[in-house]
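How it folds:
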Amino acid sequence: MASAPHIHSAPAQAASAAAQGPDSKGVQRGRSGGLDSLAMALSGLCAVHCLISAVVLALLASAGGIFFDHIVHEIGLGLASILAAIAFVDGFVRHRLLLPLTLGGLGIAVMAGALQLHDHSGEIIGTLIGVTLLSLGHYLNRRARR
């Protein structure tokens, strides 16, 4: 007597796959992929801040205040560095690709170098280049997790 085929529900299959560990590419999925998304969003906000600062500075020669204070940029770089360290190290452990980590580290380094410039135009350009490299690193890191 033949037995009836066993039918699995989609949730049961998903739970079973999750319990088995890495997917078919050998990549273990984790929560820190969300850090890459958060970091990319913050990088976008940084880029918007730089562009708005440049426009406001051009329109209002005497503009100052907290929006242009150097401490804002130092805090932003610190937050970006912490998020990058967590997301890229975790990503590297999971997928073993150096490119996302390298681009992210280069982006942080360029942003840190831009903070040392005393020329506002150079600082803005350097920061935008650094933010772009950092965002690309986070994008590749997130993509490699999938």
